[in-house]
């Protein structure tokens, strides 16, 4: 299958998903939500929104215009996919198949319904994809590897896959930098960056950097609209577990009834908890963020002084050219 045909197939996939969005997706959404209770219908639809945006013709062609895969020699690319949020592995899947390589995917048992559905849709659009998509329990016979996991599993990946061209991704999280000039709308949108997908994604904000003396209640007041997250039993359990630890240990914290806010120098907070830290000087903060950039996926802020910032409410709405860990997957695939 040539490059143009592959591109057109993915454009057709985008159109098909958009057309079936209201009705035909309900069954597959129900299946995925039943298997993984973190995958609520709303969150699954949010992930489909992102996929449809990826496959918008303007976006897709703008992105692909940066690469040349006309004469690619197909390689078998093993992809170890995470399962923390719905279809989190879809970008790697798109990259491998659009670049002309063969996908050998080890799906997370937490997220195997949706990606197999997408694969079946592609095969229905063009049966040639059947020769390029394989789902496996164990990677064998691959010629390159893309693997996403925790810091612990990354050490295993580094050892096991070191002889192959590879991209190994570790734990990352996202932060927000506040300067006190944010509108109420900005702070309300920050709630999406924190609470969408229950905070389980690497693009979710788990840490707030606040100017010294900032009144955190300004943010907390604007997050009230996200109170329904408390009704999800798994999130609720995590919230009460963390709250009990804070109370037993007498840890100072703020509590808005569905999220806990703790002053803490760490970046990654538990589910139901948002860390915050004060800063005195923006330049010093920038240097600090630069020193830990390998732990940060994105920075939400309205400050132009912050490099590669993301607007409030946009952390979970990446463009197709926004690569995980800032590693250009398509460039990698063009060189294997």
Produce the secondary structure layout.
Elements: H1 3-20, H2 26-35, H3 41-54, H4 57-64, E1 76-80, H5 90-98, E2 102-106, H6 113-125, E3 133-135, E4 144-148, H7 151-160, E5 166-169, E6 173-177, H8 184-195, E7 205-211, H9 217-222, H10 233-249, E8 254-255, E9 260-263, E10 273-279, H11 282-291, E11 296-300, E12 309-310, H12 329-334
Parallel strand pairs: 1-2, 1-4, 2-3, 4-5, 6-7, 6-11, 7-10, 9-10, 11-12
Antiparallel strand pairs: 8-9
Can you put this structure into words, describing what you see?
It is a single chain. The protein has 336 residues and is of the alpha/beta class. The chain has two domains: 169 residues, Aldehyde Dehydrogenase, Chain A, domain 1 (3-Layer(aba) Sandwich); 138 residues, Aldehyde Dehydrogenase, Chain A, domain 2 (3-Layer(aba) Sandwich). The strands form two sheets. Strands 8-9-10-7-6-11-12 form a seven-stranded mixed sheet, sandwiched between helices. It has a five-stranded parallel sheet with strand order 3-2-1-4-5, sandwiched between helices. Helix 1 runs antiparallel to helix 3 and helix 1 packs across helix 6. The longest helix has 18 residues. The two termini are 19 Å apart. The mean pLDDT is 95.
What is the strand arrangement across the widest sheet? 8-9-10-7-6-11-12
Question: What's the CATH C level of the largest domain?
Answer: Alpha Beta
- Shape-level CATH architecture of the largest domain: 3-Layer(aba) Sandwich
Task: List low-confidence stretches.
Answer: none
Instruction: Indicate the overall shape.
Output: globular
- CATH superfamily heading of the largest domain: Aldehyde Dehydrogenase, Chain A, domain 1
Average pLDDT confidence is: 95
Number of domains: 2
Distance between the termini: 19 Å
In quaternary terms, these chains amount to single chain
Structural class: alpha/beta
């Amino acid at each position: 299958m040539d490059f143009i045909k592959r591109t057109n197939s993915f454009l057709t996939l985008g159109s098909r998903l958009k057309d079936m969005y209201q009705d035909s997706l309900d069954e597959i959404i129900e299946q995925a939500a039943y298997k993984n209770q973190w995958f609520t219908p709303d969150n699954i639809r949010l992930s489909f929104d992102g996929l449809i945006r990826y496959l918008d013709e303007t976006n897709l062609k703008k992105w692909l215009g940066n690469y040349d895969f006309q004469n690619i020699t197909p390689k078998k690319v093993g992809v170890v996919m995470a399962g923390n949020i719905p279809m989190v592995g879809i970008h790697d899947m798109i990259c491998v198949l659009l670049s002309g390589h063969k996908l050998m995917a080890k799906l997370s048992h937490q997220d195997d319904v949706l990606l197999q559905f997408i694969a079946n849709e592609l095969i229905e659009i063009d049966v040639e994809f059947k020769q390029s998509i394989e789902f496996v329990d164990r990677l064998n016979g691959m010629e390159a590897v893309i693997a996403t996991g925790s810091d612990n599993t990354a050490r295993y990946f580094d050892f096991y896959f070191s002889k192959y061209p590879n991209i190994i991704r570790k734990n990352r999280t996202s932060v927000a930098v506040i300067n006190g000039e944010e509108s109420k709308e900005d702070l309300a949108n920050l709630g999406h960056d924190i609470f969408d997908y229950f905070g389980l994604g690497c693009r979710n904000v788990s840490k707030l950097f606040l100017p010294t003396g900032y009144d955190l209640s300004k943010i907390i007041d604007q997050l009230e609209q996200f109170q329904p997250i408390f009704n999800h039993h798994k999130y609720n359990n995590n919230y009460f577990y963390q709250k009990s630890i804070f109370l037993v240990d007498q840890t100072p914290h703020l509590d808005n009834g569905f999220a806990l806010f703790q002053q803490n120098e760490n970046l990654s907070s538990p589910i139901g908890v948002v860390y915050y830290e004060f800063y005195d000087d923006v330049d010093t903060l920038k240097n600090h963020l630069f020193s830990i950039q390998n732990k940060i996926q994105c920075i939400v802020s309205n400050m132009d002084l912050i490099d590669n910032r993301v607007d409030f409410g946009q952390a979970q709405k990446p463009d197709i050219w926004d690569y995980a860990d800032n590693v250009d997957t398509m460039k990698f695939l063009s060189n294997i």
